[in-house]
Design goal:
Low-confidence stretches: none
Number of strands: 4
GO molecular function, one term: sequence-specific DNA binding
CATH superfamily of the largest domain: Lrp/AsnC effector binding domain/regulation of amino acid metabolism (RAM) domain
Number of domains: 2
Shape: elongated
Strand content: 15-25%
Distance between the termini: 7 Å
CATH topology of the largest domain: Alpha-Beta Plaits
Mean pLDDT: 88
Keywords: DNA-binding, Transcription, Transcription regulation
Number of helices: 5
Protein name: AsnC family transcriptional regulator
CATH architecture of the largest domain: 2-Layer Sandwich
Structural class: alpha+beta
Order of helices and strands: HHHEHEEHE
CATH class of the largest domain: Alpha Beta
Organism: Domibacillus iocasae
Radius of gyration: 20 Å
Length: about 160
Amino acid sequence: MLSKYSIPDLGIDEIDKQILSLLHENSRISYTDIAKQVDLSRVAVQARINNLTEQGVIEKFTTVINPAKIGIHVSAFFNVEVEPQYLEQVATHLETEPAVTSLYHMTGPSKLHMHGIFTDNQEMERFLAEKLYPLQGVVSVDCQILIKRYKSRMGMKL
């Protein structure tokens, strides 16, 4: 299913868009199955996917794991205000933390928006006390804990 949004012309044609859509739904789909759906040969599909990967359109293939099924029960979003001169240093440190699943520089007074997952509230409390609050330049932290997930998007869907 293709999106109603237009994509800038980067040499991606309608067949590439169909291939990307199929991969987004199931990244384990075989080249042969994709070929059947887009009416190309398996070799042509493989070449297109390799090209999309080399161009950086496809960043990586991954597996999405349900955190609750492996004992991770706390999902939290943080707005971290950082003194401007320490922003890159703090971001570089946080991006290496296993509990941090996403990290963005947002508009506003040097804000980092971060998502983290933890086995329980005590693990999150230790993360805050031992890994976030002590970072030089951190001015304030606002935390919101997820109650229920209605939709989660991984990557861009065409």
